[in-house]
Design a protein that fits this description.
single chain, 66 residues, mainly alpha, 3 helices
Length: 66
């Protein structure tokens, strides 16, 4: 298995590329193997908030045709 730090870098890179849903899925999988890791839980919360904001922005753009 890869090092935890390598996996976290890969998750961060996925999120930065704009695919937060995939990053959250990767985090969920990793949290099953390393439960109660505060750093991973914080990342999950952060990416969840970012995904929600992206969805809100997309909905507003769709609604107002921006």
């Amino acid at each position: 298995m890869a090092k935890l730090s390598d996996l976290v870098r890969k998750i961060d890179a996925t999120a930065k590329s704009g695919d937060r849903e995939k990053a959250l899925s990767m985090l969920d999988t990793l949290l099953k193997k390393v439960p109660d890791n505060k750093a991973l839980l914080a990342r999950k919360e952060k990416y969840s908030k970012e995904l929600e904001l992206d969805r809100r922005i997309s909905a507003l753009e769709e609604k107002y045709g921006a």
